[in-house]
Specification:
The chain has helices spanning 2-18, 31-44, 88-105, 113-130, 144-148, 173-189, 195-214, 219-222, 224-227, 238-252, 255-264, 283-295, 304-316, 340-361, 374-388; strands at 86-87, 137-141, 163-166, 326-327, 333-334, 365-367, 370-372. A hairpin with a 5-residue loop joins β4 (326-327) and β5 (333-334). The protein has one domain (2-22, 29-55, 63-388): Glycosyltransferase. It has 15 helices and seven strands.
């Protein structure tokens, strides 16, 4: 449940930006206000030395000594909603998605784009610290059971700030590849405004991905006592390797990553039928992301990913012969009974993003003979947004 609030804020930001209100009457849902509050949510979750530009003024510096016990600076980053733990796996995924939102919909974030960039940088700065040592990713700061047993402000916390890592002896391809994805995605946000920083992010993403691919394993295998049941990696690491390679290909256009995707895609689950997209399972997101290379950049070698992406989309569209998704009577997507809204928002983002790619390339989706247009995908996503565009929960 802790991640839900953070992820809901990220993906409501996408949906709010992608569905602006037009007309002269009052909006039923004030998406501009939702966008502002979504970014403010991130400022409320900041750990470390807060900047002068901090708008959530009742927050103070916290976690300044994180990592000092092992002589590494791990201050900064984001707390996991109401907790004071920094869980690297969902933090990196949220950073990736926030960056993706700015890349795809930043032009719609009128008045909030710089704040959104600041939120991306706050996450990427921390991930640079977490990957400062070669072949090592620091993946968690804090003792989860003790933290969860003690409700207190991060400014006052006195629970252990234990640090956990993955390395060649304790592999974690899932969390490492997700971290590489976040760094690569963030580099696209700063490519024009801060090219030196973007280059630094790309260089680190390459190094971290190489480590993830070379030393394969699921991080919750050896760290299960510390990361489970909170953020176990149930889907394995294959999806993150494909996802990380996809982001590095998009960020660098290096043919090495194109070859990696072509050679390893099927082994890593490119045609996986599971239509769950979230902090643990990235298959659907990877298929949508890679499909852009074919639809927009015209990379013919990746044509099959249009089919893989279409399969995911067809499973989500109600009323088609291939529909595999449950919806409530009111029209809300129902995926899982536990933290369902994170899957509502993440799926809505994929629908909106794929609609953008399809519209650019003047393509549609054929679902067993039923034609699905970009407009139909936007309509489905908009309906989900109306369910999620409730007042955001109070900041802790």
């Amino acid at each position: 449940m802790a991640l839900l609030r953070l992820l809901l804020a990220v993906l409501l930001l996408h949906n709010a930006a992608a569905s602006p209100h037009h007309g002269h009457g009052p909006a039923k849902h004030d998406y501009r206000d939702a966008l502002t509050k979504s970014i403010l949510f991130f400022e409320g979750q900041r750990s470390g030395k807060l900047p002068p530009s901090q708008r959530v003024s009742w927050r103070r510096d916290s976690g300044l000594a994180d990592g000092h016990s092992i002589k590494v600076d791990l201050s900064g980053g984001y707390y996991d909603a109401g907790d004071n733990v920094k869980f690297g796996f969902p933090l990196a995924f949220s950073a990736t998605m926030l960056a993706w939102s700015v890349v795809e919909f930043g032009g719609m974030m009128e008045g909030e784009l710089q704040h959104a960039r600041d939120a991306v940088r706050w996450g990427s700065d921390y991930l640079l610290k977490a990957t400062a040592r070669p072949d090592t990713v620091y993946v968690q700061v804090g003792d989860a059971p003790k933290d969860h047993a003690c409700w207190e402000r991060p400014e006052d916390m006195d629970t252990p700030r234990t640090v956990y890592k993955v390395d060649p002896a304790t592999p974690g391809s899932d969390v490492a590849a997700e971290t590489a994805a976040a760094l690569a995605a963030a580099s696209l946000v700063f490519r024009k405004s801060d090219p030196a920083y973007a280059s630094r992010l790309v260089a680190r993403a390459k190094r971290v991905f190489e480590f993830a691919d070379k030393h394969r394993g699921t991080y919750s295998t050896k760290l299960s006592a510390y990361v489970c049941p909170y953020y176990c990696s149930y889907s394995g690491y294959q999806d993150e390797l494909l996802w990380g390679a996809a982001w590095l290909h998009r960020a660098t256009k290096n043919p090495t990553y194109l070859s990696y995707i072509k050679l390893n895609g099927q082994i890593l689950g490119a045609d996986e039928q599971d239509n769950t997209f979230g902090w643990d399972n990235k298959h659907a997101g990877a298929r949508i992301l890679i499909s852009k290379s074919f639809l927009v950049q015209k990379v013919g070698a990746l044509q099959e990913y249009k089919g893989h992406a279409d399969s995911f989309i067809c499973s989500m569209v109600p009323g088609t012969p291939t529909d595999q998704t449950q919806y409530t009577k009111g029209g809300l997507l129902f995926k899982l009974s536990d933290s369902n809204m994170q899957y509502v928002t993440s799926s809505s983002f994929l629908l909106l993003t794929y609609a953008k790619y399809l519209a650019f390339s003047k393509k549609t989706v054929s679902c067993a003979g039923a034609t699905v247009t970009p407009q139909r995908l936007r309509a489905i996503a908009r309906r989900q947004v109306r369910h999620t565009a409730l007042p955001l929960p109070c900041l802790p």
